[in-house]
Write the structure tokens for this entry.
Amino acid sequence: AAATREAKPSRRRSADARTRRGRGREMSFGTPGAFGGGGGFGQPAQSPPGVFGAPSPTQPTQVPNPNNDFQVANPPNDGISSLSWSPVANFLVATAWDGDVYCYEVGNDGQAVPKASQKHQGPVLCSDWSHDGSAVFSGGCDNKAQKWDLATNTPTQVAQHDAPIKELCWIKEVNLLATGSWDKTLRYWDTRQPTPALRVQLPERCYALSCSHPLLVVGTAERHIQVYDLNNPNQPFKQLQSPLKYQTRTVAAFPGKSGYLVGSVEGRVAVQHVEDNQQSKNFTFKCHREQSDIYAVNDIKFHPTHGTFVTAGADGVFNFWDKDSKQRLKQMAKCNAPIPCGAFNRDGSIFAYAVSYDWSKGGQDPMAQSGQNNIFLHAVQESEVKPRPPAVRGGRR
């Protein structure tokens, strides 16, 4: 069935099922034996030497891995909701519906060493890092955002909403944390203060958020798109309806700050520009479709060097694209479950992606009870992400 419903499926499970899946653990950061052990923060992972991109013979093999990527050991115990990389080192954070926030260190050989985890009082939906890599921010269904100081392994509440926090981002240029919630507000926080520095009303519940300072874009329920210039964050610079006909699932601000991408549950992406004199460059394209089946575009991320981007879909496929030449650069092999989220590391050499049920077919789907939640690390090849010149189109004159 095509995943095009507007309604959010129920995430209820029995207590017995939750117990079988296991509960999250709060552990001492970098302590041997804690969440997989390994070295302290900033110290190399204890893994054999190697070169990232050359699969190790010790890779787990029990999980389908059609792209022959590195599989992360000790993945989350429940549906994976977000992935984010440290901006200064190869530390990867994953959040999950069991309320846990996990941190892994990725070695040069592709091995991911679990380091520690922290706990929310409800499902965790989003994460980001501080610009110096010293802390992780996470938010979710306990209506709170936490700042996890990695050196001291101490979580501190830094934000509060009246409903779950769906998205957040750290804005280093102004040293503020932006949080978007299902309470229909966007709030900015000085994390040293208990009240928001600014509270902005949204037209509907926040579903997606992306920032490339001074551009900040919010996608909400009922297909509203709010575009903000953070030099004047009190009012939206533009308010419009998504050019896509179905629910917004994800947005991604251009690294060059001139526009943004919108992904929907109907297997489409819109390329949008902010300024009126660039509207002729806007276009949409279809993706994540298989014959008559249509799947959600769950996540979109830009490559940090080349400015090309990746889409991750409910069909279990991730694709690399060049918006300027309007080409797909590479389509990867289909995984055995949806890809709810993905992220490039700081230099774009690794793309981490989760293979985990995304609830696009509701709680009765067999995949909802399978308990298969995995993270893979793809060694990015330059041919997959380097821009290409526009294709020469032939045809009759």
